Fold this protein.
Amino acid sequence: KEETKTEVLTVPECTTPESKMPIAFVNIDTLLSNYTVAKEANELLIKKQEDARLNINEKAQKFQNELAEFNRKLENNAFLSRERAEQEAQRLQKKESDLQNLEQRLSQELMDETQKINAQLREDINKAIRTFNSDGRYHLILTTSAMQENVLFSVEGYDISNDILEILNSTEK
């Protein structure tokens, strides 16, 4: 039998900034939950979403009431003519279609605004990182978040999230 040797890799202890590798990471969750502009944007989006939902719910309730009234009249032969009943049915169908279109439009507007805000936040964060690393001390800056863990382990001192957050909050618009 041949004996296999296991080589143990020892990582030098990083106790000073000079002894660290030129790598760092930023926790995006930390930035987004503590960056004032991100918090305000999130609150604005939530309010718009709630307003849209309220608007749709009010219109849907009104439509349901009209539909129930139409069905009650239909069952009681309360329409003056068959043509009048058909006209009312067509009006209600159009109203239902308009309601669905409104819901889709509001949903699309909210998605578009979310994308626009996310793009602006990415730009803000990237600008803050460039400012922070203007001296070139880091050769690689990674990102991590609860949704996507890119950094599985790091010795203390490689997380620069709070430094970036400080820059972001100090340069608010």
